[in-house]
Write the structure tokens for this entry.
Amino acid sequence: MRERITFFHPTDTGVLPENLNRDNGGLEGPVLETTREDRLTLGLDQLPAEVASVLNGFSHLHVAWNSPVAYRTLEPFAARLSPGLHVLFDPTAAGTSDKSDLCSLIQIFSHRDCSVDEANHSRKAIPTTITGPEGSLQPKQFFQPLEELSHFAKWLSSEVCGAEDDACQSRAQRLLSAAGLDITYDAASKTAKVSAFWPLKRQSVSVPFSPHRRTEVGILTLGNPPNLAPDHVGVSGILTTLGEKKQPSPALFAFPARHRLSSSHFSAAFLSPTGLHPTLQLSLIGNQPPKEDAECKPYAYLTLPKTIFADRFQLDGELFMASKNLTALRATSLPVDLEAPAYTTGAWGSSILLELAPPASATTQAWTVEVPLHLRYLKPSETGLESIEVPYPAVFWACSAEQGPEFSQNPFDRAHVGYDTLFESDTVFWHVEPRPEQGDRLVNTISVPVLNEHGSALIGVGTSLVVALGFGWVLWKLYSAVAQNGYQATPKAAEEKKNR
Amino acid sequence: MIPSALFRPLPLFSIAAVLRLTLLVYGIWQDANSALKYTDIDYLVFTDASRLLAKGQSPYDRDTYRYTPLLAWLLLPTAAGPSSSVLFSFGKVVFALADLLAGWLLLRMLQARRGMTPERSGAFAALWLWNPMVATISTRGSSEGLLGVLTAGLLWAVERRRVSLAGVILGLGVHFKIYPFIYAPAIIWWMDAERAGGSVNQMRRPSIKDRLLYFITLSRIELAIVSLATFMLLNILMYSIYGHPFLLHTFLHHVTRIDHRHNFSAYNTLLYLNSADPSAPSSWHAESLAFIPQLLLACLLIPLAIAKKDLATSMLAQTFAFVTFNKVCTSQYFLWYMVFLPLYLPNSSLLRNPKLGISALLLWVGTQGAWLQQGYQLEFLGNSTFFPGLWLSSLAFFATNCWILGIIISDGASDKSAASTQ
């Protein structure tokens, strides 16, 4: 079991080694504006048996969660995902097509049992697969909205930590303020990596010592080592290992980065009125590519819960797409039923990758993109309206890298986040920061009209009655017509026939 | 008023053709210049399916393709170029030509009636040929126009005693869109020995056995065999090529669909309610019995009562009943019965009694308008109008349709209308 804790702070602040207190084996430092990442590397045998058996069903697994509360970040922690819980996985050859594994995994994060929909007794949580460039194998994906990690923290503290391990208990508690979580498992190495991320804010640079594991701490900022290669990020600062007598050592190094921060930002909102076919409008500040010497195109990657979907056949046609400032629909997850109501839809929802069409002007300007979407029918409710939440998309410029960088060298790399596998492996993603127009949530709410439950009783009786009356009326007309004139051809008509 | 000379065949069809050509060209222009498309979504489904076909794939690889592969075959030329090419409109031209052919058949049937001047029959044919709704639907690329020519062709073939042809059209029609099977009992019933030209039974008091034997005529057997053979041959052919997806999407889908989305049907709100909570013990499942009044009227009672007196009016009333009592109903379905209107109206009480006719028209348009207004509130403004607005207006539209159906039935059974067809 190894642990790595990394603080990244802006270049204009910092902490001097002499201000770090290293009594008791731990590290005590000042309060500083900084980000923090905790990464724990575990062998399969160090995990609770039930989790290990679930992980055994996957050859590769990535669970990624991002907070719905807007947050600030620094490179190299630039990757953005739609807020919520994403699961991307490759089942083992033996075939974990059974979704019970997926669901027992998700139950660590949420009390909802995803394998059974209580009201309908129908199975849900069907994962989807997004179609990538021809021939490329894409992981299966699943998504579920998740507000915070409290369920996961509770599970950690009761199932993993052990009552007397205070360091572990406080670690679990700290997850409540995290902005991101990544759990990756690779069957080849039989190891799981758990990373939690806290956004840029004032927090104390302190890490308690634990004899149970080796803990490395880095306090870093962006730096400029000599001969910085293109698409690389340079880093400087100090590194230390807790419990060792050695003084913190200065560090200066560089690595290629898959995810970068662009200088632009965007907000997302639904155009009013939303009706049954809402339009999601993305308002972007900045139409210039982040890199001049590379081929860059802007994209939006939407993660849509099952209540709302994009019609992949509608997102076609040059004129139509251009009128929305879209270039093309580049990928869509399957299956997506284009008609079914939410309550009979098995798939978790869908994701789409849209290439955007920025205005061509040379000066920087604001622009908007419109994404036409469709609501599914939802169950009747008390009020006739139901609220649904739609997470912000991930918006980024995808740029070709200059000389096939080895992103895996990046100690902070975040791969298999849903959209990266849809591009060439050397693509660099320059992320556009999501900024809510109002409030601090990266989620839009729509009020969906549904049938008002108060009518239920009347609708059953009333429909039957009216249909019966209508049917009765027509029967009466038929009866009186036949009673009056019979059903045989009239003599005149018959006569005519004979004379033919 | 319109000068009656315009109802002579040449101007009649020229105007109908120019109307469709204008809409077609306008549609191409709008599609090329506006983000809002003139072309119907369904047309994109058909042409996508044709494109798949051209690539050697199954048309059912296109989601929501719920038709016979014949349609995708028919539209194969559209797959030759991009959607901006002239050939892409090939299908719309076919649908528009089908409209015109249906109009020609209507005109022939009207002309065959006693006491109809050419202008008068032309004027009634114009109800279909110059109907902007019909012309728009086919030039937007909806295939319902094909049903118009199939059902008009069926009636024409029967009236002309071309039994085999009628059987082929009937089998093809049912393969195409299922619902034309309702015409089979009407035609069989109508085709008695007197009409079919067989020997007329002169017995005073025939026994049941005699009656039965008398019922089974050569032409009835011919129609049954030819139509069934056509239907089954097409199905076997399609099944052998496209397998289970063909059965699933062309037929089974229409049996199992839930139809929860709002449409004109009186059952609609109930279907939505019960589909969302199928286990609710208190809920009424009247919709599961919906096929009983629908099929009783459309396949049995209406043909029995009026097919022998007036086959065209019987087919109109049957279609009207089928659409009115159906679990799903959209405005394209109205085309199914509109094709018979020119044959029914000349002797109808709706024309004889203008007050009645205008009331029926206003009620039909008015209740539909009320529904559309509620639908707009729901679909575009997001107001929850399912209950009571949409529900009540769909019931009002249903009641109106039942009332009109009663009028059509009375007219069809009365001796006045007594089809002076040959």
Notes: Chain A touches chain B through 72 residues (CB under 8 Å). Confidence is low (pLDDT under 50) at residues 117-123, 494-500 of chain A.
